[in-house]
User: What shape does this take?
Amino acid sequence: MCRKLALAATALCLIMAPAAFAQAKKPAAKAAEPQFTGKVAPAAPQKATAEQRALADRADPLTRSVFWNQQLSIDPNDSEAALKLAAAQRAMGRHGEAADTAAAVVLREPRNVEALLEVGRSRIAQGQAFYGVENLRQAQELAPRDWRPVSLLGVAYEQVGRTADALAAYEEALRLSPENPAVLSNLAMFHLGTGEAIKAEMLLRRAVARPGATVQMRQNLALVLGLQGKITDAERLLREDLPPDLANNNLAYLKALTDDAPDVPVRTWESLRTGG
Assistant: This one.
């Protein structure tokens, strides 16, 4: 009986073997080839070239904001893009956003002087200079020969009522950068705020005579002249730099201030400070 079972098993193997062999020799099904649909995947965005970045710097604040925000989305660690974005945000009056953008760079690079300065500028423009003082002090420690953090500290100290510290900071900034028009203008507006219009005029005349003087500095001089009743001299400066309608408005404002004869004019830190 066992022999019969063995023979039956052998016969079954002989019957199944050729079928299994044929199955093993059958070629595998060919994978389907991808079909071209006519659509091309968009290329990944690339960082702008140095030339493109330089061109963007000459654009208006909104255009700069869009450009640098795009660059930052490509590379979140692009510190240059972040700081340029912060400057554009500040120029548009978005001071809190500017401070936050620059502060993110400081968090990543605590010794980045430009980032520390931008935080300080933005806080001053925001009217929150107290929260920018420490950043400016750190920038001063990292770059002790740089006049900018010292000048900005002067503005910050003045905003928080530390008058003596503000004056000392401006004088130190002038020592580091003699006859610097930005520092001269800031010091002039400090003296105007303390009622010393004649001293402010003298400093502003020095500032506007220097290379690198800005329209803002000349308009500060026009303000000081107007407050002293020198309307003709103030009008000449106003009309040199401003379109007729704006010049007329500012001239009317100066005449109104002169009529009221305030001891200290109402000022805003953003409009009357160059901020280094």
Summary: Residues 1-22, 261-276 have pLDDT under 50 and may be disordered. The CA atoms of residues 1 and 7 lie 10 Å apart. Residues 179-276 form a domain with the Serine Threonine Protein Phosphatase 5, Tetratricopeptide repeat fold (CATH 1.25.40). DSSP finds 15 helices and no strands in the chain.
